[in-house]
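Fill in residues.
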């Protein structure tokens, strides 16, 4: 009997984990760690034992924000830094809830649960590949991931990196390591409990608020990355985190009586509003900055070129999600020197020396001549662009390349329509406008117009791009206009090229 997709992926992840998880935890002691964002925190001995494994140490060599540092030079923080920050925030939020709902006989978060939450926070990003979400955009398109995330499937709604956490935790080497860890330390919970927290499962239970601390609308992950990404990019955001902590409550979900969730008291809505604003600003200014998006496309060009020519990268075939677990950012850059294929070396070297793709065309509501008078119609057009599938965008790129008479490699022409900021998770935030004892629960949408804000972002901030090497900009811009006008029935005005700053182009 042939093995399922899930079984084959599990076997491959087993092989990966076996290389990076020791057979037994090394002896460890409590450790004080200093952080430039949150200051000092104390790690327990079992946490240090996990942190010292190669599985987590590899996160030191994976940039938290991918290629953002090529535009924001100080954005050099890593997944390792972020994991420690999430641990800090999870502990602060848990500790505040314990204090707020102090009951020695029946604590809201007992010591065992606190250890579980802290360890889940530390491990939540153990599955990231090189350049974080940039590589995730690639391997989410693999046949394995498409199969696992299909509608109605076991992992529907989970991100690819979260799915890989499942396979790492279910691997035989990791299970053996954890069992030995349990013998040495008071970890009276199971790996499945950690997995549920990280994947956002188990919210419909009496302890659903445990999951919300790790994977919820205002979880420890968001609280760290907003501060960390903004700080190191040099664009500090303001979130009244003290008010947020004091305003968090545990209440029964009115629609699911068996579920107890983290909800926000109405006095803390301003803090949620600040989180929404910060995410939108970071998305527009940092994550979707045109040079960052160009760098992402250059990375994808390397991967696509290797796939199209049956070439390995860092010794991996790049067809499976687990291939990207083996690689770190430094290993990728080393291929600019050691890869046997000259073109691959050149493509990577262009990133190393920051010879980035240029904008041939900018697609936004400012650059489109439109008969549309209503925001709804304009938003529909942008949404159509955003929802275009990867294969469709690559087909468009191929058409543009051919229309421009095949300048350079087809892998160097990119149609990039980034997705809007993630706000859907916040739409499910519950707000209590009553008292703690007599709650009046409603949706955050009753206090913050999230759909309207999302539409305004699409109309005023969203930009799509056609990227290519600098020497081909003029040819590609002309071809892209023609192809996109035929495809989407729009006409571009002068801003389509003016916003791309064509004055510096060599052709």
């Amino acid at each position: 009997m042939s093995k399922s997709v899930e079984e084959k992926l599990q076997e491959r992840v087993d092989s990966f984990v076996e290389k990076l998880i020791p057979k037994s935890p090394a002896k460890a002691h409590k450790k004080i760690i200093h952080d430039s964002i949150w200051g000092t925190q104390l790690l327990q001995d079992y946490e240090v034992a996990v942190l010292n494994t190669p599985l987590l140490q590899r996160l030191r060599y994976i940039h938290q924000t991918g290629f953002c540092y090529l535009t924001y030079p100080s954005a050099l923080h890593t997944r390792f830094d972020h994991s420690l920050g999430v641990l800090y925030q999870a502990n602060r939020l848990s500790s505040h809830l314990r204090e707020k709902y102090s009951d020695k006989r029946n604590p809201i978060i007992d010591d065992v649960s606190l250890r579980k939450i802290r360890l889940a926070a530390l491990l939540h990003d153990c599955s990231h590949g090189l350049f974080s979400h940039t590589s995730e955009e690639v391997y989410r398109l693999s046949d394995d991931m498409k199969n696992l995330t299909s509608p109605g499937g076991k992992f529907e709604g989970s991100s690819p990196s979260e799915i890989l956490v499942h396979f790492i935790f279910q691997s035989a080497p990791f299970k053996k390591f954890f069992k030995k860890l349990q013998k040495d330390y008071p970890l009276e919970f199971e790996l499945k409990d950690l997995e549920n927290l990280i994947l956002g499962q188990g919210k419909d239970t009496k302890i659903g608020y445990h999951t919300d601390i790790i994977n919820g609308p205002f979880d420890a992950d968001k609280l760290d990355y907003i501060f960390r990404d903004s700080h190191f990019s040099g664009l500090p955001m303001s979130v009244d985190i003290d008010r947020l902590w004091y305003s968090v409550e545990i209440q029964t979900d009115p629609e699911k009586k068996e579920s107890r969730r983290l909800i926000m008291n109405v006095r803390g809505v301003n803090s949620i509003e600040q989180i929404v604003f910060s995410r939108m600003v970071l998305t527009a200014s940092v994550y979707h900055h045109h040079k960052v998006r160009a760098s992402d496309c250059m990375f994808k060009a390397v991967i696509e070129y290797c796939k199209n020519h049956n070439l390995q990268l860092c010794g991996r075939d790049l067809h499976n999600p687990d291939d990207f677990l083996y690689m770190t950012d430094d290993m990728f850059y080393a291929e600019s020197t050691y890869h046997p294929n000259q073109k691959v070396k050149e493509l990577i070297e262009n990133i190393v020396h920051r010879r980035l793709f240029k904008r041939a065309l900018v697609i936004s509501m400012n650059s489109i001549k439109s008969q549309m008078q209503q925001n709804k119609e304009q938003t529909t057009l942008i949404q159509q662009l955003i929802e275009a599938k990867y294969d469709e965008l690559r087909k468009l790129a191929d058409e543009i390349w051919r229309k421009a008479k095949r300048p350079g490699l087809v892998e160097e022409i990119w149609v990039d329509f980034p997705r809007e900021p993630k706000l859907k998770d916040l739409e499910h935030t519950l707000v209590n406008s009553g008292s703690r004892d007599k709650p009046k629960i409603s949706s955050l949408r009753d206090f913050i117009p999230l759909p309207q804000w999302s539409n305004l972002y699409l109309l005023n901030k969203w930009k799509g791009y056609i990227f290519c090497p600098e020497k081909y900009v003029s040819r590609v811009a002309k071809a892209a206009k023609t192809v996109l006008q035929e495809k989407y029935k729009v006409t571009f005005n002068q801003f389509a090229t003016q916003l791309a700053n064509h004055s510096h182009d060599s052709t």
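The two ends are 59 Å apart (CA to CA).
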